[in-house]
Amino acid sequence: MFYSNVLALQSVNITDGSLTVLFDDGTSIVFEDVWLRDQCRCSACYNSTTFQRVQHLLDIPDVTITSVEYDKSQILIVWSDNHESIYKAEFLSEFEYSVWTNKRRRRPLLWRGKEVASKVAKVHVDKFLNSVEGAEIVFTSLIDYGAALIEGVEVSLEATEKVCKALGGVQHTMFGGMWEVTNVMLHADTAYTNVPLAVHNDNTYFNEAAG
Fold this sequence. Notes:
Layout lengths: L8 E7 L2 E6 L4 E5 H6 L7 E2 L4 E2 L11 E6 L3 E6 L4 E5 H5 L3 H8 L8 H4 L4 E4 H6 L1 H14 L2 E4 L5 H11 L44
Parallel strand pairs: 9-10
Antiparallel strand pairs: 1-2, 2-3, 4-5, 6-7, 7-8
């Protein structure tokens, strides 16, 4: 369900601590009064140039809805502190749950292990870094299958870092940003050798572990 046209208001009813809005397509949405006050778009509450609040969230007064007037396109609310707020029908309709689920969420994709090998994306590094199409292919594969192959990356720390930054950034740890694991025993740790390690978790002592 996606609203290609602006919905018209059919009825508005004040209930205990909320406002029930019925649109002409039969959709009914309940808005809490505190949420409505927070979303007030008057110049005293909202900067329409920067799209930012003027009033801090904690400064919202403890008020209730005193009266409501509406037509097909908007609602006028008068609050118990005599403040007035106007809400457009188009704005309110955007907060119908199905609109957000359909616009923002991808449908889950079910797959079995053997099927993935032929479906995981394989994209040349130049296409990934220099085109929207290449990036979309890689990220779609990551979302759907948890993996993507970027081919043709130069065997260097700098080239690898460039790809990592395009994928979402380099997470810094106590080792810094990008760093190489070499076969030396400076740290008395088998992780710094060519000995294979079983599956394990790194950096469990950090709030946000790497990887």
